[in-house]
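Entry:
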Amino acid sequence: QVQLVESGGGLVQPGGSLRLSCVASGSIFSIYAMGWFRQAPGKQRELVAGITKGGSTNYVDFVKGRFSISNDYAKNTVYLQMNSLKAEDTAVYYCYADEATRQGLPYRYWGQGTQVTVSS
């Protein structure tokens, strides 16, 4: 079983920055993508950013130019650098990792979530 441990969340003022980290551990076979979703109270969970093992990235339009995702797949780690934070970015951020099983089937693991609060 794979466990994802997130860190870096907290309270920050508007315009500030945070760096989220997520490390996968456990019985890992082959992770090929990692990334982040977020969910604000009363709203659906939405994709923030993702990155493949090869470095291909994608971002939701709202965070383009402000957030940057990076990885270190040798360490099964993904990062999310969050700059110019806005109150609208307040949410619980969830890390995910996509793995190909030995049977060749995909499986998505989830972190427990970390709270990001942007407020003055």
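Residues 72 and 78 are 6 Å apart (CA to CA).
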